Amino acid sequence: MVDLNVIPKGNKFVVLDQKERMIYNIKAGMGGKTHLINSGGYKLFYFTCDKKAKKPVFTVYNDDKVMFTAECTSLFLEPGLSIRGEKANLDVVSHDRQEFKIMNGENQIGTVTSQEEKKETKYLIEIDENYFDDYIPLIAVFIDMSFGKINKG
């Protein structure tokens, strides 16, 4: 299993590994783009959020080509995300907006759990190492952007 901590810090997220080393930064850029940057400073992906949609829709790009979309399937009853694209075909499902199962078809390949810490919510990701990819920390960011205000309210 790969264990990651995704911690919000102001307008960005820091991703730490099991040994608490920073491996990614996720921060807002220009033109509504939010970038996933590795520890070497290289921009791996960016995503945009369709704010006009009734439920959040995130589109992830690599080299300005759409990699996948993550669409919020429900905000209240069976909250979750549907991730579909060339590189990903996952469902992220929950019953309480606190613990989310990452599903590949019928198989659970990981979890994202939210934890309150000093009035901030941090996210713990556990994912099977065979399914880990650089975009996986974005799932926690999508959960925070979709459900974070509801959970705090």
Low-confidence stretches: none
What's the domain count?
A: 1
Q: What fraction strand? A: over 45%
Order of helices and strands: EEEEEEEEEEEEH
Can you identify the CATH class? Answer: Mainly Beta
Strand arrangement within the widest β-sheet reads: 1-2-3-4-5-6-7-8-9-10-11-12
As a percent range, the share of helical residues equals: 10-25%
The name of the CATH architecture is: Beta Barrel
> Average pLDDT value?
92
> In this structure, how is the largest beta sheet organized?
12 strands, antiparallel, barrel
What is the distance, rounded to the nearest whole angstrom, between the alpha carbons of the first and last residues?
32 Å
Number of helices: 1
What form results from the Cα inertia axes? Answer: globular
CATH topology: Porin
The H-level CATH homologous superfamily, spelled out, is LURP1-related
Number of strands: 12
Radius of gyration: 14 Å
Core attributes:
153 residues, mainly beta, single chain, Porin
Fold topology:
Layout: E1 2-9, E2 12-16, E3 22-28, E4 34-38, E5 43-49, E6 57-62, E7 65-74, E8 80-85, E9 89-94, E10 99-104, E11 107-117, E12 120-127, H1 136-152
Antiparallel strand pairs: 1-2, 1-12, 2-3, 3-4, 4-5, 5-6, 6-7, 7-8, 8-9, 9-10, 10-11, 11-12
Task: Kindly describe this structure.
It is a single chain. The chain is mainly β and 153 residues long. The chain has a single domain, classed as LURP1-related (Porin), CATH 2.40.160.200. The chain has 1 helix and 12 strands, in the order E-E-E-E-E-E-E-E-E-E-E-E-H. The protein has one helix at 136-152, and strands spanning 2-9, 12-16, 22-28, 34-38, 43-49, 57-62, 65-74, 80-85, 89-94, 99-104, 107-117, 120-127.
